[in-house]
Amino acid sequence: MTALRLAEGPARFLTDLYVTFWLPGLVLTAALVVKLPSILKLWRDPLLRAVGGLLLFACAVFAFAAPGTIAWTNRVTGVPNIAAPWVYTLITALSACWLLLVVHWRNGPTGHREKTRRATRWVVRLYAAVVVALWVLFALADVPVERVRDLDTYYAGTPFMREEIVLYLLAQAVSCSITTWLVWNWIRTDGLDAWLRWGLRFLGVGFATNLLFSAAKFTAVVARWTGHDLDWLNTNIAPSAACIAATLVAIGFIVPHVGQYLRERWLVRRRHRDLGPLARLMRTVAGRREPLALRATAEMRLIRRETYIRDALLQLSRFLDEDLRARAHDAALALGHDPGQAQALAAAVTIMDAVEVLAAEGPDAEVLGAQVRNAGGNERHSVDGDGGTGEADTSYLLTEIRAVSAALRHTEEITAVRTHAAAPAESMSAHE
């Protein structure tokens, strides 16, 4: 008995502080804030409406189920225990939203539309009937003594109130069981995004934990029917289980969005970092560093770096040697590189050679600019073997700057390609 009281102590302390009510409420509110822009923007999407309804009803459940709010509701309305059918109604509506969410989520916006509509109508009608029955049973029950924490067990044997308690618990347990089963089946399907799969895992564990809430409530109620006192399951374990379940469900909704956002941020920063070698090489061409804005977003910094590189490549275009690029490509293939890597290495060798030629000639920037403008942005020229000019294809350089920049990191490979690419030209010069 002493051990039982010690076990009950922390749970009772948390209940007294209402942690089991406001903590999940805060997490659910955070999830609702994260989802709200999408819900408002795409309100016609039934899936988003189900998500919005689920989060809204979940927040309302924990707001109105707190002992302080229950006492306030009873006092304002002047009806003893009127908060009971109201909280039961919110729990029932939340249970319906669980089912609607999974129905629309699994079938998708274009799949099994008629089947989805039938399932939606069935869920709405069934749970609406449960809500009506809850209020009718409460009107018929005699519950004059206000019970803020233990109403379910205190009135477990009262006619009509007994049936009401069993009805809302059954509706909640059935919905939770079906939702848990469908979510865990869905997790095992192939082709799911990693973040979505993790979100579904949190949802599955959260819904499964909700079954502990129902089990604790049912056990306490049945114990009252048989003359036993297990009210601590109702007043301590059930609220704690609901707190954990709601927190996990909220995290399940937040994880895919936060994960997607972090992945996008990481990809943008990674692309910006990958372009570093090529940007540094282009400083000789541009004659200055790329513009730096400390307060600029990651996307803006990436756009500025890409623009800086492409502008410099356009200035460099008249020094690009297409024959060298062809020889470098063949040399890279001969060295065992795959076609994509060979193309990037050949472009890197060509750009490095053009930068060296530009540094040796030291042309005036205004002359270069005039030549680029006269070319109209459509024709780029390169020095040919006789000192004349020929058209150079810069489309690959302008569109695949990330691959070229990545190739610049492998100095040993570039050196090997340049050596092999220069060998035929040196042999030709020796024969001549």
UniProtKB/TrEMBL annotation:
Residues 265-370 form the DUF6545 domain. The chain crosses the membrane at residues 20-40, 47-66, 86-105, 126-145, 165-187, 199-225, 237-262. Keywords: Membrane, Transmembrane, Transmembrane helix. It holds the Pfam family DUF6545. The keyword Cell membrane does not apply. NCBIfam families: MAB_1171c_fam. This is DUF6545 domain-containing protein. It comes from Streptomyces spinosisporus.
